[in-house]
Amino acid sequence: MTSLRFFFWFLLISFSASAQKDYKLWLQYHKIQNAAIASEYKSNLQGIVSLGSSATSKISLTELETGISDMLGNKPEVKSVINGENNLIFGAQTNLNSDLQKIFQSDFTQINNEGFIIKSVLLKNKKQIVITGKNDVAVLYGVYSFLRLMQTNKSIKSINIVDAPKTNIRILNHWDNLDRTVERGYAGFSLWNWQKLPDFIDQRYIDYARANASIGINGTVLTNVNANALILTPQYLEKVTALANVFRPYGIKVYLTARFSAPIEIGGLKTADPKDTEVANWWKEKAKEIYKSIPDFGGFLVKANSEGQPGPQNYGRDHVDGANMLADAVAPFGGVIMWRAFVYSEHDANDRAKQAYAEFQPYDGKFRDNVIVQVKNGAIDFQPREPFHPLFGAMPKTPLMMEFQITQEYLGFSTHLVFLPKLFQEVLESETYQKGKGSTIAKVIDGSLNPHKLTGIAGVSNIGNDLNWTGHPFAQANWYGFGRLAWNPYLDAEIIADEWLRATFSNDENFIKPVKDMMLTSREAVVNYMTPLGLHHIMDTGHHYGPGPWVSNLSRPEWNPTYYHKADKNGIGFDRSKTGTNATAQYAAEGEKIFDNLETCPEKDLLWFHHVSWDYKLKSGQTLWNGMALKYQEGVNQVKEMQNTWSKTKKYVDSERYKEVEMLLAIQYKEAKWWRDACLLYFQQYSGKELPVGVEKSTQTLEYFKSLKFPFAPGN
Ligand code: BDP
After folding, report:
1. Which of 53, 171, 258, 341 could form an S-S bond across to 300 if both were Cys, CB 3.0 to 4.6 Å?
2. pLDDT for res 20
3. Domain 169-504, CATH class in plain words
4. Which residue intervals define the domain Glycosyl hydrolase family 67 C-terminal in the entry (predicted)?
5. Is residue 80 helix, strand or coil?
């Protein structure tokens, strides 16, 4: 081989090795560097015994074999019976022998159907580690949990874990269209290759299911909430069935979005009125047809009478009529309706933030028991920061499902490094005060505040067919973190970041510490350089890329950023207190009082609830104008610091991912400055004040920023 050919060959190999790292997500199974831990694992994991033979058991076995041999550098012996000691034994409750049944008897009473037990036990006086649960999927969760312990180099010597998910629907919402474009998708096209399905099963479907199972996600809505009825035709259902078959052994159920007007569009009916018997029967027949080929079909997610989507109101009916009609269609098969509360209307002059509550709160207790109402975390729309949605504290008789957005529609797309579990945790820890102090959103969601049979958390997916799945290597952490929080809404974001970094990159403390800090501050950084102090929805309209606080020419008032910030000569902010739209009254009394009063309203939400003067004194002693300008600058500085942190990680990260993140952080820095400069120049017209010391002056004019256009911004 000539040296040039050798060089290209070498490049190819190292590129694919590195690209594979990106693709492998948090399931890298790096060789363990810590000798003491590696030898502890080796002595405890001499053999693997599978007590099951299902497709799911086979996945568990393969996963353990690959994970353990990659991490330890040698293959453990796979045994067909339990003999000797220091084996890793796994299997579902019904497959355990009587000795093991006895050992785990009381643990089984502590877990639900998806929970697992991992324990070091003495079986006939021999030390073994056992992973068990009530069925094979639960065992698979235990297997991934065990491998995660190894990936994070935790001791397994006297392992004793009993764990179970706190919510029952842990689901990704894909806003994927049938032409494979993804609404608000920034990581390529849809994974679902409808044209080649059902006969061609892309390896990616399997890898997708595996990644989800590894973090406990058990459902996927394949299609966009802005739905296309064609997905419900036999031609497409056959394709959906093929996907469901791939996902089933991983414990993942398939759901679809239901276009409310489907009975007209594909059923040939004259109406989609939910009170019309023919319509109700059409849905019943449709459900029967689906369940015939997908017996464990999860159900429907519905966006109705929202942003132009059809719904029951087109026929003078309401959300309850619509949801219950669909609920009756899927109930005989155990299906669920996830009905979205994301509604606001151009005909309603009321504060947009109040509309979903005004419409849905009176329906409390009126839905069938297989309906769960899906509520976005905030009352407007997935902003970098929003106070929690007031519906969470106001519908005790209705199961409410959280809807988070993992894809970064309003948070810099897949170019900005923003660790979202910080945002998710802030929401889940918020106090609704529904039953006094301690009534957190996590408790509403997991059904512990007001008991409900159905509980759940949905995340709008950030996954596409990019090689690295999510566009930004660090956006993988948001998928990961979403799954972990859906399993346990009380998990700390710091623990999630720690696990993810170790599993994805390295266990070296010199890497973990600074990079974890970087992740944990990244959410506050984006708030600072985009929408500090409670500002919101001042992104450029339509695509939501970059700043556009000046936009005021759109037909619907609430589509204009000026509607949200209300900057004028006197000050800035949306008065949602008693003196304004009184949106604060939608919160339970204790919360209402806090938000309503300028003195007690958290400064992070100040301009969400209050219109305050430019000279208003912040807690820091700064005027509002100076404080706001300093926040914008702080955000920019934080990104600079992120770049600085990353520049020191070269020796811990493969060159490709190092370079990717380096380039992305450079874009983020550029865009953070763009945000700061554009917003401050714009607001300065109203405040009429100079920038305080420490805030850099823009090198461009406001006119320049206003002239920027992005007709092909992705995801729109
Ligand atoms: C907004 C998005 C829009 C979605 C809508 C929704 O801009 O693309 O269709 O929410 O959630 O965030 O229905």
Report:
1. 258
2. 87
3. alpha beta
4. 470-694
5. coil
Domain range list for the chain: 25-163, 169-504, 528-574+611-707
Under a CB-based contact definition with an 8 Å cutoff, are residues 62 and 52 in contact? no
Please state, rounded to an integer, the average pLDDT across all residues of the chain: 96
Given 63, 136, 176, 381, the catalytic residue:
381
- Residue 703 corresponds to which tokens in the numbers above? 């006119």
Catalytic residue among 22, 409, 431, 671: 409
CA 705/CA 536 separation, integer angstroms: 19
Which residues partner with 547 through β-bridges? 539
Q: Give which of 345, 447, 346 is closest to 392, Cα–Cα.
A: 447
Catalytic, 307? Answer yes
Determine the Cα–Cα distance for residues 392 and 375; give it in Å rounded to an integer. Answer: 8
Q: Is 409 a catalytic residue?
A: yes
Report the residue among 225, 339, 383, 401 best suited for mutation to probe ligand 1: largest number of ligand atoms under 8 A from its CB: 225
Cα 210 to its chain centre, rounded Å, is 17
Write 647-655 long-range contacts (CB < 8 A, 24+): 648/514, 649/511, 649/514, 649/515, 652/505, 652/506, 652/508, 652/510, 652/511, 653/505, 653/506, 653/511, 654/17, 654/18, 654/21, 655/18
Q: Which CATH number fits domain 528-574+611-707: 1.10.720.60, 3.90.1330.10, 3.30.70.260, 3.20.190.10?
A: 3.90.1330.10
Residue 19 pLDDT grade (very low, low, confident, very high; cuts 50, 70, 90): low
Read off the pLDDT of residues 255-283 as tens digits, 9 standing for 90 and up: 999 999 999 999 999 999 999 999 999 99
